[in-house]
Amino acid sequence: MSTQSLLESEDLLTTEMGKAFLCERAVMRGKDIHNELGGMDWFRMNLFSITGRKFSDEQIQLLNYSWVATSYPDPSIWPNHVAALAGSVRTTVSLSMIAGMAISEASIYGRRPERRALDFFYRAKGRVDCGEKLQDIVESELETHGVIYGYGRPLAKIDERIPHTLKLVSELGLDNGKHFKLALEIYELLKQTRGLSMNIAAVNTSLVADMGLTVEEYQQFLTPCFITGMAPCYIDARDKPEGGFFPVRCESIEYRGTPKRKW
Q: Domain limits of the chain?
């Protein structure tokens, strides 16, 4: 940011997003929150705040289901594990949830792989539209990155969420999107050539691509989605004896790093 820009911003807040005029009204993206947006449910409001757009009932139902279908209250899942550890040492619920959400941006699951999956579908569709063969695009992606996010799944071959999601997609009439059809074509190709299955990231991100969310918008939308599964894990650990969540004796730790040395 230039010095001139900093000087122009001194003592002046400019925004097109909104403002609270206390004792009068509150505005979000040019809409009066209480008079124009007050009839929205929270989910629609959240999407409007991120994108400035309104979505169809079918799109909202599908996006809502993508959150519901991922709300696993299993403390062995990494974000939930962190939330449970926080509860076990009696930290506050806010810190517990925030820590769990931060962990959900790990490299092999959650936000970052889904960002890359969505980016890939946009790039792949653009290249297909320019006349490239899908097989060449897939091989190029694998050669460059070694993986296509959304295909294959850490620890499990089959993603149990997919049949339920595909059923809902069909019922809602959202199964004709170009990116979604492309995702299925890529699955058939990778199944034949690499023996890879498809995971829920490919399904969800291809559908989101058909809705037109950008990569940044999608990540922002996804950030809180694990919280419903984290909450029970925090509560369960909090209500048990302090420090009782998977305690480990020092002698049980198998350390294979640098041996002891004098400092």
A: 16-54, 111-221
Helix (H, G, I), strand (E, B) or coil at 119: helix
Q: Concatenated DSSP letters for 140-199?
A: HHHHHHS--TTBS-TT-SS-TTHHHHHHHHHHTT-TT-HHHHHHHHHHHHHHHHT-PPB-
Residue 38: helix, strand or coil by DSSP?
coil
Place of tokens 């509860």: 87
The answer to whether 119 touches 253, Cβ cutoff 8 Å, is: no
Q: What is the pLDDT of residues 124-138, one digit of tens each?
A: 999 999 999 999 999
SS3 122: helix
CA distance 60 to 56: 6
CA–CA separation, 5 and 14 (whole Å):
12
Cα–Cα dist 35/33, whole Å: 6
Strand order in the sheet with 25-28: 18-21, 25-28, 31-32
Q: HSE on the CB side for 34, CA within 13 Å?
A: 8
> Closest Cα to residue 80, out of 89, 90, 71?
71
Determine how many CB atoms are found less than 10 A away from the CB of residue 53: 13
What is the SS3 assignment for 13?
Answer: coil
Strand (E) or helix (H) holding 27: strand 25-28
Class of 111-221 in CATH: mainly alpha
Task: For residue range 76-94, list pLDDT tens digits in order.
Answer: 999 999 999 999 999 999 9
- DSSP H or E stretch at residue 201: helix 200-211
